[in-house]
Amino acid sequence: GQSLEQPSEVTAVEGAIVQINCTYQTSGFYGLSWYQQHDGGAPTFLSYNGLDGLEETGRFSSFLSRSDSYGYLLLQELQMKDSASYFCAVWAPDGANNLFFGTGTRLTVIP
Amino acid sequence: KAGVTQTPRYLIKTRGQQVTLSCSPISGHRSVSWYQQTPGQGLQFLFEYFSETQRNKGNFPGRFSGRQFSNSRSEMNVSTLELGDSALYLCASSMDRGNTGELFFGEGSRLTVL
Questions:
Q1: Residue B1 pLDDT more than 80?
Q2: Nearest-5° angle of CA B65, CA B67, CA B69?
Q3: CA distances to A21, A32, A88, B9 from A105, in Å
Q4: d(Cα A82, Cα A107) in Å, to the nearest integer?
Q5: What is the pLDDT of residues A11-64, one digit of tens each?
Q6: CA B107 to centroid of chain Cα atoms
């Protein structure tokens, strides 16, 4: 089966940097994705790591280490609007077009 | 282009009733998948349709069903509602399984079962 673990809550100060970790166990691995979801909103895609290393998209970066079954999302120059839930996700191992999501991390940005 | 549209956004039902939720994917997207989101269980995969065929199904009872029409619009149905079915039901669309892990989600239908 698939298992993805994240911290349930993280609090950080506006302007700071925060890292959200994700450890996974999966029978087949096809990359790690990250999604953001504001309260009452749709999950929106942030980034994807298919290979080891760092992917950067503006203020957001995502890292993957396949040997450690670990990844993280890094948010820099935090803004109040970054307060949201963040989910890591992996593709189904059998080639199916569906994702398995982590437990989610609620990020609260404080002034 | 227009995003994924789900209707209704909110609905209240009582135990034993049934409900039908609708999803209109992004134009050109042939894959539509459904997810249930609850505070306790997070986002869980229900099923995925592609070109009117169910390709995959998650671990949910048979009370949960769906279908997809020739225009890629999809509906899901839950029969004999239980209190535990109260959740946000999210629809996601894509061309097919891509290389980037990106699905496009709607804002969901929030179902409350009383």
A1: no
A2: 170
A3: 9, 15, 9, 24
A4: 8
A5: 999 999 999 999 999 888 889 999 999 998 999 999 999 999 999 989 999 999
A6: 11
Q: Which two tokens stand for residue A54?
A: 């760092």
User: For chain B, give me the number of helices (H) and strands (E)?
Assistant: 0, 11
The A-side interface with B (CB below 8 A) comprises 31-33, 40-45, 48, 50, 87, 89, 91-92, 95-104
Q: Is B94 on the interface with A (CB under 8 A)?
A: yes
d(CA B12, CA A3) in angstroms, rounded, equals: 32
Convert the pLDDT of each residue in B20-56 to its tens digit.
999 999 999 999 999 999 988 889 999 999 999 999 8
Between the two ends of chain A, the Cα-to-Cα distance in Å is: 40
